[in-house]
Queue: 2 jobs
Job 1
Amino acid sequence: MRINSEYRSQSLLELLALKTFVERLRACSVPQDALTWSRFFGALLLVLLVLLFLSGAFLSLYYSPVPGAAYDSVDFVLFNLPFGAVVKGIHHYAWNLLLVVMGLHLMRAFILGAYKAPRQLVWISGVVIMLIVPLFIITGDLLPWDQKGYWSTQVRLSIIGTVPVLGDLFVRLLQGGPLTGIVALTRFYVLHILFLPGVLIFLIAVHFHLIAHRGLSEPLSDGSLPRLKIPFLPDMVNRWLVLFLLVTIILGFISWYWPPPLGDPADPTDSTYVPKPEWWVLFLNQLVAIFKGSLTVIGSAVVPGLLAGLLIALPFLDRSPERNIRKRKMVVVIASIIIVSMLVLSVMGYIEHFGEPHPE
Ligand code: HEM
């Protein structure tokens, strides 16, 4: 029986002209420490991305990018389509989790000095990915055409507009006119489902290509021991598949019991609506709020730009081969100051937007 099924799968692979490809994959090996739990975040990110693409593809079957109709189509998926709320919930919870896991993946690479030579470009490709991901959220937020998405977009566009020289141009390119209407919605939709995924898939391919060529960083503890290898197929691929199933089931259950939110339909004439910022932009919102008037650009462009530049330049600023965190006091102090400042700004933002209102 077994010989028969093996023979069948062999000839199927030949028929599909995939035999050499699978054989080449089978010949690939990765260090055994690729399966350690501290590398869990990289695999989880990959799984979340696949889930986002799959759930997004299903949602796009029902979505209609026209103001008004957009809201009805999302409402239909949430409340009338069997399992629609689960698919939409998986999409919603997966991007929230993706942001958290991306932060943890970055912290791990930072703490273990995985950004150092020869992996500088692995780090830089990761930072670029991290800068692209929020664009998915910004473009996706407008798509349901509800009050929160519409007015959050107005806030974001007005912040982008404060960026000198390019700000206005960006806003006009994004909106396709002076107002957020049908052209803007079409552009946000096409960016969300076509351009940004294309860029992201390319960047992930670059990230993986660089990891394959530069190798995973060696474990810090037992450098003297020989590094054992395991086959990429099936060991690594199996780990990813199990993780994919687990995450799908867990997010599916969460979405079933706590369906994703949908506010009231967007009303562009109701300028009394004040959108509350999402958790991941609380610190940026607060930064923009601190610098008022002509200084707004410091919070909207200068500080975020400097932070992004610092992250990209990190492997070139910290060039010593030392990877032990206890012996890298300088970078740890600077990183701690940045992280604590971000946390303080986020807490301030949370209190301002979600705290008890003061009695008049
Ligand atoms: C969705 C985005 C991302 C995916 C799918 C992804 C995936 C992965 C995977 C599977 C690995 C190998 C296993 C591991 O060490 O975890 C890895 C390694 C790495 N990633 Fe990412 N990553 C992403 C974003 C990032 C970001 C934002 C950064 C940092 C700015 C980053 C920096 C690195 C570094 C430096 C390594 C090498 C780790 C080592 O050799 O020990 N990645 N990534």
Job 2
Amino acid sequence: MAPATRRGFLSTLGSTAGIAGIAGCLSDRLPGGDGSVDRTVYIGAYHWGFILVDEGGAEREQIAVDRGTSIELVAFNTGAEQAFESLPASVRSAVPEHHELEERNEERIPAPNDGDLHEALEAANDRYPDHSVTVVPSGGNHMGSGIRMHPLALPTDTTRPTVDTVTASQRGDYTLSCMTYCGYGHPYMYLDGGLIVR
Ligand SMILES: [Cu+2]
């Protein structure tokens, strides 16, 4: 994808137009907006991390739910412009701008030995634009427990968010993790303890 268009979606961030219409839009356009799920959690994937946004359009480091809660996960690749545009305005405006996401990378991902993080990011955007997300118990492999799910594919060439409903069946901390190789920072692409089932 051409650099000129890759981050074009950022120009829409900060727009407040349409907020009043969110509830209606959501029920028309996304599964579960009719109240058949208890919670909706928005998950944005970028190189190299995840953004968690609640129903109110607030970015959160973690979202806690009660056991037994059904959770609609609405996941998107921040590089998928059309999918991003289809999200509620409050969710779009909660997604940090590109430079802020790059600053987050610098805080938590060591620079490569043979180059800098920015170059690695540019290369990854071009060569490995896709991600995926899975939700697994934090701190190890506990087969069969909790929210484990098959990875949701998050390609850049899709026009819609990827939506799935999961049930928070067991208490614990859960980590969002990318299961699709996405360049240098892929091993760091996780959000530890992003979901808590209490
Ligand atoms: Cu990834």
